[in-house]
Amino acid sequence: MNDTIAAISTTMGVGAISIIRVSGNDSINIVKKIFKGKDLTKVDSHTITYGHIIDNENIIDEVLVSIMRAPKTFTREDVVEINTHGGIAITNKVLELLLLNGCRLAEPGEFTKRAFLNGRIDLIEAEGVMDLINSKTEKSRKLAISQVNGEVSKLIKDLRQKVIEILANIEVNIDYPEYEDIEEMNNSMILTNIDSIEKEIKNILRHSEDSKLIKEGIKTIIIGSPNVGKSSILNRLLNEEKAIVTDIAGTTRDIVEGNVQIDGIVLNMIDTAGIRKTDDVVESIGVKKSLDLINEADLILYVLNNNEELIKEEKEILEKIKDKNHIVIVNKIDLENKLDLNELSNYIQMSVKDNVGIDELRNKIKEMFNLEQIEQNDYTYLSSARSISLLKKSLESLDAVKTGIKNNMPVDMVEIDLKQMWSTLGEIIGETYTDELIDQLFSQFCLGK
Amino acid sequence: MYEIIVVGGGHAGCEASLACARKGHKTLLVTGNIKNIADMPCNPSIGGSAKGIVVREIDALGGEMGRNADKSLLQIKMLNSAKGPAVRALRAQADKITYPKNMIETLNSTPNLEIKEAIVEDLIVEDNKIKGIRLEDGIEIYSDAVILTTGTYLKADILIGDTRTRQGPHGEKPSNHLSEKLKEYGFNIIRLKTGTPQRIEKSSIDYSKTKVEYGDDKNWTFSFDNEIYYDKDKQIPCHLIYTQPETHEIIRENLNKSSMYGGLDDIKGVGPRYCPSIEDKVVRFADKERHQLFLEPESIYYDDIYIQGFSTSMPKDVQERMVHSLPGLENAIINKYAYAIEYDAIDSKQLKQSLETKVIENLFTAGQINGTSGYEEAACQGLIAGINASLKLEGKEPLILKRNEAYIGVLIDDLVTKGIIDPYRLLTSRAEYRLLLRHDNADMRLRNYGYQVGLVDQERYDKFENKKKEIEELTESLKNIKLTPKVETNEYLTSIGLPELKDGISLYNFIKRPEVKLENLTKYIEKEYSNEILEQVEINIKYEGYIKKAVEEANKMVDLDNKKIPEDIDYDKIHNLASEAKQKLNQIRPTSIGQALRISGVNPADISLIMVYIKKEYFYEQR
After folding, report:
1. 8 A C-beta contact, residue B413 and residue B404
2. Phi/psi of residue A259, each to 5°?
3. DSSP B91-150
4. CA atoms of A347 and B73, how far apart (whole Å)
5. Which residues are CB-neighbours of B623 under 8 A, at least 6 positions away?
6. Predicted ipTM > 0.90
């Protein structure tokens, strides 16, 4: 708990500058050992110092070092941030020097965990920051910031208020049964009341699923028969958008061939034999392999050849993908049309050679993942798996309420699930059990002896 | 020289002294006025939502209130009977003459128990340990433990309009110095307030303008002894009326004359939210056109009628006009005027879960002195304080009921963990697991504890064991009894309003259906079982899913409650604890992580820090 940790806090290889963050009691002393410039132990807190990182007198890089002393730091510990000139090799070298001089490599999310344990941030902020750290694109960074700002909290708070009003009414019926003036909250009234709540939760969930795609990237495969031009489409996407191509394994178990960014949306191109190797090999893999991939992908780009008639296998695949997110691309429209377009319902015509249809593909993807709408919504949705699963859990409770009502359960049984839902919603924004309900009871109703 | 002295003869004091004496400890009950023992100075009623369940719990543990109420009934009904089993509770009108009379008889016939009439003005304390009490006249009485159950009598002031009179209910003499002494010993003294409505001469009421409210046409008892002392056909009814626009007008016009609204400018007491005065209701809920009032009989031996819902601290002349504006009360004679009462209480956060004070060893407190309100709330604390004072002298661990075991546990945990601002009343809403804390299963939850501490005798315990056995037996047999879609079976089902069967089904599965009642199907069960057994079995089966869920939730809390915080923990050593949290933790000194989490102002981040600290420091030190 008390040791000093370090990690690279920017995405490797992105941008001109990399930041290495160090946190803990010894952070300033450790950095001092590898720094040539002003004495870092003597500079003011929250200032930036220019100098060089050195390894036994050898200059490694020209850097700016931010010194932030506890407690007004992200982790409430002494924090040093080293801004290097990027480049994987140099950044790694600096980190290595820090580790050699007494730092421990931070576990994923450990800075945030410390911030949380030191009482700097609450749980939902912690998740937001966690996402911020992990976010790969500007769009998801905005999303993460929105969560920290508590816009999600407000949405959830509103929902909870609606639930607590129902609860207070039920409670008052139970605790003051002799009060005939107070409306009896019966099952059918509960049903009416939770209807709008259900819609809202589902709405947030839908946006959240979309936002998850933004953050984690859209798992995308390009499939198609040999020689339809899959590789050239991929290469065009990669080249045009100046995408980063790395060999780093993604967050999923898939091997990602490359990340393609389209207006800030990340497409994780799933490595398939068909993409990486020559088209000849794909033939041997056949339809079976394609079907497996179809099931895993968030988005299927299915490429057909304008210059060939549809074959049986291609028709089969069209049938398989019709219920998934997919885009049919008819490539090679610069060649003679032999494909019967009437057999397709929805497609994009493309010629990679003549640079036709790429923009249309991009727009289609944006449209498909509802990205326009997400932007308009100010990013007020949940962006961590924990929050999403809690919201789903509260929806389950809501379903249980409905089932209870359907089974004619008495209102105090039905209320158990309603209360559960209320407390699950509370968990999302980190509000634990308090006297909220009692307070609501007495402010909403007039009671007394 | 006594082992235990109980100061105060109200509902808390009665239970406390009975528990101590029955456990074989030489006990003295000191009260300001013997004839006011077990008095009901406010409502002529016992039970109600949540409170009725507490009375059952008191009975299950071997306390007296349930049995005593059963002997004194004017009327009784089951509340919320149209709702589910979790929220049912008994509410009774109890005779204000009979109830105390029966209780005094019980006290007098209990061995080891003496009663003395005196006012206590100080404690004898040596090295922060209680040694006895000092009376008004300077006489000292020594004991090993003291239980204070002083009710509203600490520096009591009766408030009517612009007059403040230093006296307790019934014009009794209060204790003027005890609360000051308690302050000197280190208690934080808070001032609370409550009120009571007028009593009306019965013959002056025109009942034709009221709505009659009867008791249930079915026999009920609070006690698991199930002894019926009343005739259900001769219950005394209550009557319902409503305030009129004129009533509200009178109140608004005279608002500044009410003690609480400017009549007196030195009000410090905080009144109960759940029990506002009529002027509070009219002011706070201005858009409400009328308020319900119940006319409740106090006794068959005198003619006072209590107006439930009309408590006020208006001057007497305004009270006359207010009462006369009510339907049926136009010519009513007021036998006693309504009043508010201010009194001192201690900060309940200075108590341990056992109700022993943290300030003075072997000193226990129970009832209104702890900031609660209500006869039942007082009685159950008295019982627990009596049990735990005795256990302490016996060198045994205290009896601490968990929030998932009893409303009593909820109440005491709330008191010591959260503290109070206004007088505390139990509500079912205060319990997280009320499906587990039912009226019907109070004995299942608590009889064992009562037996273990020695307040439940062998005969009652055997009866309980037998009940448990029969419940298991019936539950098992229902799995083996099959209903088949035979003509006569379906005819019978149709005759009791149930749909016909298409396939065979076990009785066990059949009664899971909400509309099916086990009492209608007894002809398919060979052995005869009491209604009590049938009810238990039916509830357990019918609500199995919900009960299971509640148990799972409760277990999570129990897990946290079982994570103990070392008694000597130094919160100042935990870096980064929020200062509010640190201050509260130092004050309350929770015994478990679960309890710490329930303190308002202590957030999960603080809990993480505490857990990390305990793990680090204590594991390290032990090694």
Report:
1. no
2. -100, 120
3. EEEE-TTHHHHHHHHHHHTSTTEEEEE--EEEEEEETTEEEEEEETTS-EEEEEEEEE--
4. 83
5. none
6. no
Helix (H) or strand (E) holding B3: strand B2-7
Number of Cβ within 10 Å of residue A278's Cβ equals 11
| Cis status, amide bond into A71, omega within 30 of 0 | yes
Length of chain A: 449
Helix crossing, A138-148 with A123-134: angle to 10°?
A: 170
DSSP string, A310-373: PPHHHHHHHHHHTTSSEEEEEE-TTS---S-GGG-SS-EE-BTTTTBSHHHHHHHHHHHTTHHH
Three-state SS at A47: strand
- Torsion over CA: A392, A398, A400, A406 (sign): negative
**A-side interface with B, Cβ within 8 Å?**
1, 71, 76, 116-119, 122-123, 171, 173-181, 407-413, 416, 420, 430, 432-435, 437-438, 441-442, 446-449
Give chain B positions within 8 Å (CB) of A409.
Answer: 84, 514, 546
DSSP B33: -
Residue B296's identity, in one-letter code, is E
Distances from the Cα of B157 to the Cα of A69, A288, B42, B199, angstroms: 57, 89, 16, 20
Distance CA B61, CA B461 (A): 11
State the angle between helix axes of A110-117 and B604-622 in degrees (0 to 180), rounded to the nearest 10: 90
Whole-number Å distance between alpha carbons of B33 and B119 = 9
Closest CA to B199 of B233, B178, B228, B169: B169
- Is the pLDDT confidence value at A441 over 70? no
Q: How far apart are CA A251 and CA A254, in angstroms?
A: 8
* Residues with Cβ within 8 Å of residue B367, at least 6 apart in sequence: B8, B10, B11, B12, B13, B149, B150, B151, B377, B378, B379, B381, B382
Torsion-angle region of B497 (φ positive above 0: left; ψ -120 to 50: alpha; else: beta)? left
CB contacts < 8 A (A, B): 128
Separation CA B67–CA B102 (nearest Å): 10
Quickly list DSSP for A91-140.
HHHHHHHHHHTT-EEPPTTHHHHHHHHTTSS-HHHHHHHHHHHH--SHHH
Confidence of residue B294 (pLDDT cuts 50, 70, 90): very high
Instruction: Give yes or no for a contact between B10 and B103, defined as CB atoms under 8 angstroms apart.
Output: no
User: Which pTM value belongs to this model?
Assistant: 0.75
Give the separation between CA B38 and CA B387, rounded to whole angstroms: 19
SS3 readout for A140-169 = HHHHHHHHHCCHHHHHHHHHHHHHHHHHHH
The string of pLDDT tens digits covering residues B161-219 is 888 999 988 888 888 899 999 999 999 999 999 999 999 999 999 999 999 999 999 99
- Taking each helix axis from N to C end, the angle separating B245-253 and B316-324, rounded to the nearest 10 degrees, works out to 160
Query: Which among A123, A121, A40 has a CA at the least distance from the CA of A81?
Result: A40
Nearest to A448 among B42, B309, B515 (CB): B309
Residues B28 and B139 sit within 8 Å (Cβ to Cβ): no
Tell me the CA end-to-end span of chain B in Å, nearest whole number.
47
Q: Model confidence over A355-378: pLDDT tens digits?
A: 888 888 888 887 777 554 444 333
Q: Is B191 helix (H, G, I), strand (E, B) or coil?
A: strand
| Residue pLDDT, tens place only, A296-338 | 777 888 888 888 888 887 888 888 888 888 899 999 999 888 8
Closest residue of chain B to A447, computed from CA coordinates:
B274
CA distance linking residue A318 with residue A219, whole number of Å: 19
Q: Give the one of B87, B281, B309 whose C-beta lies nearest to A412's C-beta.
A: B87
Say if residues A159 and A421 touch (Cβ distance below 8 Å): no
User: SS3 for A269?
Assistant: strand
Give the residue among B545, B531, B490, B539 at the shortest CA–CA distance from B511. B539
